[in-house]
Amino acid sequence: MSETFTKTMARNIFYGGSLFFILVFLGLIFHTTRVLPERDHRENITPQVVLGKKLWEDNNCIGCHTLMGEGAYFAPELANVYQRLGESKDAIISFIKYRPAEGVPGRRSMPQFNLSDEELDALAEFLKWTSEINDGDWPPNIQG
Amino acid sequence: MKFSSQAVAKPYFIAAIGLFTLQIVFGLTLGLQYVLGDFLFPEIPFNVARMVHTNLLIIWVLFGFMGASYYLVPEESDVELYSPKLALWLFWIFLSASVLTVIGYLAVPYATLAEITGNDILPTMGREFLEQPTLTKIGIVVVVLGFLFNLGMTILKGRKTVITMVLMIGLVGLAVMFLFSFYNPENLVLDKIFWWWVVHLWVEGVWELILGAIMAFVLIKITGIDREVIEKWLYMIIAMALITGILGTGHHYFWIGTPDYWQVLGSIFSALEPIPFFMMTLFAFSMINKRRRDHPNKVAALWAMGTGVMAFLGAGVWGFMHTLAPVNYYTHGTQITAAHGHMAFYGAYAMIVMTMISYAMPNMRGRVANSAKAQSWEVWGFWLMTISMVLITLFLTAAGVLQVWLQRYTDMPQSFMVVQDQLAIFYWLRFAAGVGFLAGVGTYIASFFIKGEAVGLANAAR
Ligand code: HEM
Ligand code: HEM
Ligand SMILES: [Fe+2]
Cα dihedral angle (B418, B421, B426, B432), rounded to 10 degrees? Predict the structure, then answer.
C-alpha cells in the first residue's frame, strides 16, 4: 500500500466505518421489529404455541430438521409440514406419536419422544403457526 | 518465548487438539448416519451426534483463541501475564464444563438434560449451535470474563500495540454477542433474528478481528516485516470485515419472516464480504514474499498462507455462491449450506488456530522450530486435512446442486427423503474423504512426537 495512505487513515476508516454501520444496522433492526407484527401474526401466539416452541427446543428437533431453512439437513423441512400433510394437525400429531422406538431399519429414523396428547397438540399448533408466517414465499414448493 | 507465563497457552492448545480429534470422530459418525440411517439408533440419534460435533468445534476453537491470546498478549505487551494461575484455573473449569456437557448430551435424552439443568427457569437450549445447557452457557460467560480480565490487566501494565487492541476488541465482541444466546423470545421470528447476532456476527464479524490479529502476530514473527506495514494491513482488513459483515447479516434475513428490504440489503453487503477474506490472502502471501528473514519454522508459514487461501475459498467463494437472495431462495438450508459451513469454518478458524499452534508450540517446547523431520510430518498433516476438506466440500456441493434440482427446481419436485436416497453416492464419497481427514489429524498429532534435531536458539538462521 502506498505511502500517502497512512496507518492513521486506515485506523479511522475502521473505527468510523464500523460505528456508522453499527448504527445503521441498529436502526434497521429497530424498524424491522416495528413492522414485524404484520408478518409474524403474533396475535396468534397462543399458550399452546408457546408450549410447542418450548417442546421443540427441549427435544432438539432442530438437530435433524430445518425450520424455515435453518437447522440440520438430515430430515424434512418443517415450516410447511402443516401444508404438506394436508393442513392437518392430526397428521402431524400421529406422525410424531407413532415413531417406532427402535427406529425404522435401514432408514433415517426419528426418535419416539413419548409426548402426552397435550404436548403433541402444542407442537402441532406451533408448526401450524410457523407455517403462517409471511416468509417471502419460502420454501419454493411443497416439498420444502 | 519471551516470558515464562506465556507457557499457560500449552494446555489450551493440547485441549484444543484433543477436542478437535473427538469432533472429527463424531463427524464421521454423522457421515455414516447420513447413509446408514439407523446407525447407532436409538443410542446416539443424529441430532445428538450433530450437537456433539458442532459444539466441540466451537469449544476447541475457543480453547485455541484463548491459548493464542495467552501466548500473544504478554509478548506484545512486553510484560508477564497478569495472572498465570487464573489462566490455569479457568482452563480446568472450562475443560470440565465442556467434558461434562458432552457427557450430558450422550448420557441422557436431551429433554432430560434440559429438565435437570433448569431449562424451565431460563430457557436457552435447543437452538442450533446454542444447545448447551443454560448452566454451561453461564460457565462460558464466567470463563470468558476471567480471561478478558486477565488479558486486560496485562495490557494495562504493558505496551499497547495495534495487534493487542484489535484482538481485545474481537474478544470483547465475542463475549458481548454471546450474551444474545440468553435471549430466547417466545416469538420464533424474533428468536431467529437475534440468534444470528451470535452466529453470524461471530464468524463474519468479531471473529475476523481475532483471526486478523493472530495472523498479523504470526506474520511479524516469521517474516520480520516492519510492524507499521503489518498494522496498516490489519486495520484495512478488519475495517472491510465490519463494514461489509454487519449489514451482511441481512443474508440470513431473507426467508424468516423479516421485511423484504433485507433481500436487497443482505445481498449487496454480503456480496462484499469476500473482500476482507481476499485481503487476508494477499496479506499473508505478500508479507511472506517480502520477508526480511528466513524463519526456520517453515510449516508455520505454510499454515498462514493456507489459512488465507482456504478462508477465502470457503467463506469468500463458497459464501458468495449462495448469498444473493434469488440464489439463496433455492439453496437455503441444503447441502450447499453444509459445504460452505465446513470449508469456511475449517479454512478460517480451524486453520488460524493451527497456524498459531504451529508457531508457538515449538517456542514453548524450548526451540525455535521443530526438526526438519517433524516439520515434514506436520506438512503432510496439513495437506491431508486440507485436501480432504476440499473433497468434502466438493462432494457436498455436488449433492447440494442435485438436491436443489430434484427437490426445488424441477417441475416435478420430489420429496426430501426420496431425494436424499438418490444422493447416497456423494455421501459415501464424503465419508471416504472424512476418513482421509481423520488420517490427516493423526499425522498432524504424530508430528508433535517426531524427534530429530530441532532448531535451537543457537543454530537458528537469524
Ligand atoms: C470427518 C470429517 C467430517 C464429517 C464427515 C462431517 C460431517 C458433518 C455432518 C454430517 C454434519 C451435519 C449436517 C446436517 O446438518 O445434516 C456436520 C455439520 C457441521 N460440521 Fe462437520 N464433518 C466433518 C468435519 C468437520 C470439520 C473439520 C469442521 C470444521 C472445522 C466441521 C464443521 C461443521 C459445521 C460448522 C457443521 C454445521 C453445518 C451447518 O449448520 O451448515 N465438520 N458435519
Ligand atoms: C469464516 C467465515 C464464515 C464461516 C465460518 C461461515 C459459516 C457458516 C455456517 C456454519 C453457516 C450455516 C448456518 C446454519 O446452520 O444455518 C453459514 C451460512 C451462510 N453463510 Fe457463511 N460463513 C462464513 C462466511 C460467509 C461469507 C463471507 C458469506 C458471503 C459471502 C457467507 C454466506 C452465507 C450464507 C448466505 C449462509 C446461509 C445459507 C443458507 O441459506 O442456508 N458466509 N455460514
Ligand atoms: Fe452469515
Answer: 150
